[in-house]
Amino acid sequence: QLQLVESGGGLVQPGGSLRLSCAVSGITLDNYAIGWFRQAPGKEREGVSCINSRGSNTNYADSVKGRFTISRDNAKNTVYLQMNSLKPEDTAVYYCYTDLVRRYWGQGTQVTVSS
Q: In this model, does residue 69 exceed pLDDT 90?
């Protein structure tokens, strides 16, 4: 059974860093692209980043470009989102997802950027 579990969120001051992890089970991870989206209260869901199955191609939302880095370790069945220079507007619940017959995502991890 496919399962995605996010972790690594927390409270950080503006300018700080966090690394989110997405542990995937139930599929052979190196066959699938993985992405991250975020959801802030009162705001629309926003796609943040995605990485192809081999890790050779990545994409980022303009709002995070140059600050966030997505990576993957297929041997560990894990995808990471390194977030640097965090801003208050990055505050949201972050979800990792993959698309099979439908989109699957985990329970999310809260990121709060505040002084």
A: yes
